[in-house]
């Protein structure tokens, strides 16, 4: 079949038929957006996920605080021990349990070098085995008495163990 001049031109019926088919495949207004119920459901699910995340972060924050305070106190105990060895005199770390604080000083003197306050997130602060809640290190780095310092936040507890040999460890 030869088409002559009209090759490639469709007749009017073909064009109309193609246009109708294209229109049938177009989405209607109902398919373009989300319903109010769908949006509210997504918002509800996101709010539950955020609520769970926030509560998990608070627990993580308290645990991190407890670990940080235990490490700081252990570092301060080792500092007191090193000062006793370096200066060849007794150094002490005095615990004030009700006030939730401690001081570093030379045992024979009243002058305090460092005073630290335990943060409010630490709920429990106690010590056992030390006379007058005082950890004393002699010029050889040995502790006068063995004992423990217990720090606690809501879900976790850290125990700092001090041995007469001067060994200090967080459990």
Sum this structure up briefly:
The protein is α+β, with helices and mostly antiparallel strands and 171 residues long. It has helices spanning 12-25, 29-32, 36-87, and strands spanning 91-96, 101-106, 112-117, 124-128, 134-137, 147-153, 156-162, 168-170.
What does this entry look like structurally?
The chain is an alpha+beta fold. It is 41% helix and 26% strand. It contains three helices and eight strands; from the N terminus they run H-H-H-E-E-E-E-E-E-E-E. It has a four-stranded antiparallel β-sheet, with helices on one face. The model has no long low-confidence stretch (mean pLDDT 85).
Layout of helices and strands, plus pairs?
Blueprint: H1 12-25, H2 29-32, H3 36-87, E1 91-96, E2 101-106, E3 112-117, E4 124-128, E5 134-137, E6 147-153, E7 156-162, E8 168-170
Antiparallel strand pairs: 1-2, 1-5, 2-3, 4-6, 6-7, 7-8
What global shape is seen?
A: rod-shaped
Strand content: 25-35%
What is the tally of beta strands?
Answer: 8
User: Regarding quaternary structure, how should these chains be classified?
Assistant: single chain
Strand/helix succession:
HHHEEEEEEEE
Q: What brief labels describe this structure?
A:
171 residues, alpha+beta, four-stranded antiparallel sheet, 41% helix
